[in-house]
Amino acid sequence: MAVGLFGGSFNPAHDGHAHVAETALRRLGLDRVVWLVSPQNPLKDARDSAPLAERMASARAAAKLAADGRAMVISDFETRVGTQWTIDTLRALTARHPGVRFVWLMGSDNLASFHKWRGWTDIMRMMPMAVIARPGSLHHSRTAPAAARFASARVPTAQATLLAGMEAPAWTWLTAPLNPRSSTALRAARDAAAHL
Ligand SMILES: Nc1ncnc2c1ncn2[C@@H]1O[C@H](COP(=O)(O)OP(=O)(O)OP(=O)(O)O)[C@@H](O)[C@H]1O
Ligand SMILES: O=C(O)c1ccc[n+]([C@@H]2O[C@H](COP(=O)([O-])O)[C@@H](O)[C@H]2O)c1
């Protein structure tokens, strides 16, 4: 079984997330995409975060926007096992599910700052990764330290269906079509509406 791991704050979730999950499911030939709703992104300000239950509900609603909603699983795994750093989460998941072929999924904005994540080179060596293009971050992600450091492990997009079966490090780009949605913009619109 091949499973995409899609970590996020989902504060709130939106159709951009459904786009990422659906694109990865289809282009990588995955059986499931697990939306790992983060207790708290360690690099973000906790004061901006809605409660986990609210973000889980939001992720459930957004996952229904994906064409194959039945392949989407919304999970509070990190809260249940008490992990916050992705490296710890992936160690816990791979230890519990040795037979599953996992792929880490993220938008290209996160590739641009991936070298700031705890144990990022170990994450690259732990499981294959797919980066889904996001407007506003295309240049920065292509020139990112992580892209340069693992340039030789890059798999051509045309071979994306093979990625889940590959030994890490292995990563690929999933490009087009772009989805411009962001949680920051949705929170700003909601706050503006509240002050009308
Ligand atoms: N429109 C999008 N296109 C591609 N990737 C996206 C898009 N929106 C979110 N992502 C990716 O989804 C994952 C979870 O993102 P997150 O929940 O932080 O949403 P966000 O819109 O980036 O939130 P915020 O604006 O609060 O930072 C990240 O890997 C992010 O790169
Ligand atoms: O482990 C880290 O150092 C780390 C740093 C920043 C983000 N992450 C993870 O990246 C995923 C996307 O985060 P976000 O806030 O951009 O949705 C989510 O699973 C976070 O826990 C992880």
TrEMBL record:
Record family assignment: Belongs to the NadD family.
Domain Cytidyltransferase-like intervals: 5-188
Name of this protein: Probable nicotinate-nucleotide adenylyltransferase
Enzyme Commission identifier(s): 2.7.7.18
Entries under CDD domains matching the protein: NMNAT (cd02165)
Pathway(s) the chain acts in: Cofactor biosynthesis; NAD(+) biosynthesis; deamido-NAD(+) from nicotinate D-ribonucleotide: step 1/1
Classification via InterPro entries: Cyt_trans-like, NadD/NMNAT, Rossmann-like_a/b/a_fold
Root EC class: transferase
Alphabetical list of NCBIfam families matching this protein: nicotinate (nicotinamide) nucleotide adenylyltransferase, PRK00071.2-2, PRK00071.2-4
Reactions performed catalytically: nicotinate beta-D-ribonucleotide + ATP + H(+) = deamido-NAD(+) + diphosphate
Coiled coil: none
Reported function: Catalyzes the reversible adenylation of nicotinate mononucleotide (NaMN) to nicotinic acid adenine dinucleotide (NaAD).
GO MF term set: nucleotidyltransferase activity
Protein keywords: ATP-binding, NAD, Nucleotide-binding, Nucleotidyltransferase, Pyridine nucleotide biosynthesis, Transferase
